[in-house]
Amino acid sequence: MADCEPIAHRFMDLTVPEYAYMFGFLQADGHLYESVGQKGRLTVELGIRDIDLLYRFKHLTPYNSRVSERARSTNFAEKHHSAVWTVCSLEARTKLKELGLPSGRKSRHIAPPSVDFSPRDYLRGLLDADGSIGYTGQGIPFLSLTTSSTAIAAHLKTYAREITGHERVINRNTRDEVYNLTYEKEAAQALAVDLYYLGCLSLGRKQVKADAVASWTRPPDMRVVNSRRLWTAKEDQVLLQATNVAEAAEFLGRTESSCHMRLWRLGKSRMLTPSNQ
Fold it and tell me: Cα separation of 171 and 181, whole Å?
């Protein structure tokens, strides 16, 4: 952020990388409470090891805020030591709500900002709060995001496709009704390099993992599996209007079995024939 420009004048200008990151993190892991009148507060609670990030948020916020520590018993630990950042300013809360930070339960309703913003910094904020990065037990690098929001899942899918060339089909899982988008190997590596660039604002422990993923080298004996080629609306139109599957397959550069399977799926899902262009 430029030192010559007062921070208050640019608070939550999402074209500024630090604020884009901060907003993504707040959408995923912040809690906006509203009470009677104009009372309310914004809080973020993290494990004590991540307290440095909360002080960065405090520094970026030109309103009174505080970072405190607390210790309590949880279902996971007899004594959990955490840090909490709290902002009560009505002006700050109003700005965040206007940008798309709902109060109360929000997981299904958050979406990318409708104003100009820095996409990779925003995504890194979401991933630091609700994502994972590192290596599997088999030594495979991965990057993943878990979200209840369809808009967020679609945004990551589109962004990752542009960076990696890998397409993902997004569906809620049946157990938790959430989306789990996972990228592995070179795709995870490309995203790690792009999102966790040198000098960016991030959780220190995830930056370390991203750097490790960025240094991964595919073992010589690991087979490369080409990504599945997805069907486009125009290809569906050609196939549905064709009188001969073999000729359609040759025209589309696909196998006949692939074309037959696609026709079966189109019929099963009762998809409408695309209109003529």
Answer: 9
Residue 232 is encoded by which pair of tokens?
A: 């486009």
Beta bridge partners of 179: 147, 172
Contact 40, 34 (CB under 8 A): yes
Q: What is the mean pLDDT of each run of 10 residues along the chain (277 residues)?
A: 52 96 97 89 96 97 95 72 96 95 82 96 98 95 95 95 86 88 94 96 97 92 69 86 88 81 71 41
DSSP assignment of 237-265 equals HHHHH-S-HHHHHHHHT--HHHHHHHHHH
Q: Phi, psi at residue 16, to the nearest 5°?
A: -85, 120
- pTM recorded for the entire structure: 0.78
Residues 6+ apart with CB under 8 A from 261: none
Whole-Å CA distances, 159 to 119, 155, 191? 8, 6, 9
Reading the block at residue 82, the tokens are: 């955490």
**Dist. CA 106–CA 103, nearest whole Å:** 7
CA 110-149-273 angle, to 5 degrees, is: 125
Is there a contact between 112 and 156 (Cβ–Cβ < 8 Å)? no
Nearest-angstrom CA–CA distance, 103 and 230:
38
Using H for helix, E for strand and C for coil, what is the string for 37-83?
CCCEEEEEEEEHHHHHHHHHHHHHCCCCEEEEEEEECCCCCCCEEEE
CA atoms of 119 and 116, how far apart (whole Å): 9
